[in-house]
Amino acid sequence: MNLFRRILNQPKPADNWTPSPSPATPSAPRTEQPLPETSPLITQEIPPQPLIPDGATRPLAQESLLSYIGGDHLTFGQLSDVGMVRSNNQDASVAFYAGSRSADERPDFGLFIVADGMGGHHDGEKASALAVKTVAIQVTSTIYLPMLKGQNDSQEPITELLTQAIQKANSDIMTQVPDGGTTFSGLVLIGDLAYVAHVGDSRIYLLTKDGIEQLTRDHSLVQRLIELDQLTQEEAADHPQKNVLYRALGQNEIVEVDTMFRRLPPKSRVIVCSDGLWNQVQEKEIVDIVRQNVNPQDACNKLVALANKRGGLDNVTVILLNMPG
User: Fold this and answer.
1) How far is CA 159 from CA 47, 123, 194, 261, in A?
2) Phi, psi dihedrals of residue 22, rounded to the nearest 5°
3) Cα gap 190→263, rounded to integer Å
4) Assuming Cys at both sites, which of 90, 111, 142, 294 could form a disulfide with 117, CB separation 3.0 to 4.6 Å?
5) Is the pTM of this model over 0.85?
6) What single string gives the DSSP state of each residue in 116-133?
7) In whole angstroms, what is the distance from residue 203 CA to residue 244 CA?
């Protein structure tokens, strides 16, 4: 059995993490609509087409190409900015997406990561860059390429393979950037299943028609105090130690990684961001901007612009995924 078939047949996640998937709605057959008489395509003179020998690849007609683009594939935007105060950008991110439509029935695949570096002037940026590079290489070699080749050698769950990749990144940082550290928030997307891994205080949000939900839990001192009812959310915003983390890559030989997997509803959005965004832009504002911008890159641009308008006190990075539906 192929790896991706085993992925899709995994047991349903725990109810406290994953809502019941919505039943699939059969797609209506596509019908060609006549163009209006005022369309410039009707009046445009079409040049004669060259003869194409039998067996050669024929180009798609423009209308066929346009109907294929923007089908049932994910779209995403990505932006990272140094902000208004810092002199260098210690954030790092990666967005990798492969859409597939063939007789193999292979699901679409994506890897999306944000890492926020910590340490000296250059140590933080080196640590975050090393983290996203190492995890991207490991995930590609242990998850995506075997799936692409139809191999079924690995029996390990996706979350386990993702955790192993992060552990390798942690080890590499300890060796190569001993004075640096980084947060890590990322997900592997296979079809509509998101496999999430998280360390630190970068965040992953899920936005649906019902509202916004923070999928990750901050590994920060103030969050721990909030959970112990020793601090309110309002007090945490101005706490002098609000940037202190008790868990990050590059701090200990073994790092504990929070993992989960979640089925993403049709037309939902996923936001992966560093604290440079959520410290400056409120959740309600994030929701409004994302919903008002169909193009995910436009939404990313406006979110970063708003964070900078509020002072841009930190580097800010955001990836926005728009799920099809």
Assistant:
1) 54, 28, 10, 8
2) -70, 145
3) 10
4) 90
5) no
6) EEESSTTHHHHHHHHHHH
7) 15
